[in-house]
Amino acid sequence: MLHVVSFLVLFPPFSLAFTADEVKNLTKYIFATNAYDKSLRPASNQVSPTDLKVSFNLLSINKLDELEEKLVTTAYLTLSWKDEFLTWDRTEFRINKLTLPQNWVWKPDFVLKNGFTEFKELGGSFYYVVLAFDGTLSWKPYQVFQSQCSIDVTYFPFDTQTCNIQFTMWSHYTYQVTLSSSSSSVEMDDYKVNKVWKITSTSQNIDNSGSNSIVTYTLNLKRKPGFYVGNLVTPILFLGVLNILVFIIPADAGEKMSYCVTVALGFIVFLTIISSELPANSDSTPYLSKYLQIQIFMGGIALVISAVQLRLRHKSEQQKVYTPFKLLVNAAFCKKFKAKVSCKDKATPVYEQNKEIQDMKTYDDPITYTWNEVSSAIDFVMFWIYIFVYCISTITIMTILKN
Predict the structure, then answer these.
(1) pTM over 0.90
(2) How far is CA 82 from CA 16, 36, 39, in A?
(3) CA separation (Å) from 322 to 232, 368, 371, 374?
(4) Mean pLDDT, residues 326-349
(5) 266 SS3 class
(6) For residues 365-384, average pLDDT
(7) By C-alpha distance, which of 77, 49, 66, 88 is closest to 275?
């Protein structure tokens, strides 16, 4: 204990405390005595560029508007550079850091290049910069950024999007100000998770090769499909099943046509909902919209077939059934095969069975066809065709979307 007390008395800790008068004297020394000019780029040798260190701190993704192709994020930038005209000797002024309004010093004209709105200055009149004794300035402008983002909705609602947020030096050329990064990627220590989009990865790219330096921050986003699967995809799949059930309803029920129209209108409603949620462009069409178009087309075909079927069903039974319809009935119910084959008891001698076959050849009863059988055959054949088309199209589209 004696050793500790002796050390504290002989070697007191360095104190950062300073008075208001010292701050006033330092401020007067910088801006009055040295006549600091904020319009002058802070380099003694104007040939050498100023190194601007940049980092992007993402706080939240507010919205990704698919219709306007706009990404809205909340973030703040951390910018630091060295101003050679804002230095002082710590032996004369024992102040290490000084906080100043941002409009008192030179600051880079750093702007959002792919902004959705007009250019505007970062920060504001109430923002401050932190100035160190060696001239290093630190500035953290906080802002809601609205940037352009090209949307590809081909695999909606299992799609992934890549959005770029670009910043550039608007007036200063590369030989005047160059960009460098103080971090390896987008900073996400304070990021708040979005309920619609998940960030799979981020990256940054600094380009000092052009006339103006550009830094690009890339966000790779993946949509969380739970909401759309439950409220959009699942009802569409069930509507596809209802499309098949058109051929289960008998022609005499009287509700076949109205049922067909109702199912078709249901598909059109869902197609309208999807179209209202997605951008109106011809570059990419969602597979889900293509699937809906297939189902609407199938619903239209079912409507036409049902109309023809009802017309045939109510023909007079005395009117002859045409040959193509006879073939359809034979294919659907194997009517000709059933009419020709005569099953005899196994105990019947062979010669008697042969005699029966000869009798069938000599006396061949004509097969009768009715328009009711034609209507039933159409239902039977179309039912299985629609099941096949529905299963193939659904499995194909869902596999493509999922993968």
Answers:
(1) no
(2) 22, 14, 15
(3) 45, 12, 10, 10
(4) 59
(5) helix
(6) 80
(7) 66
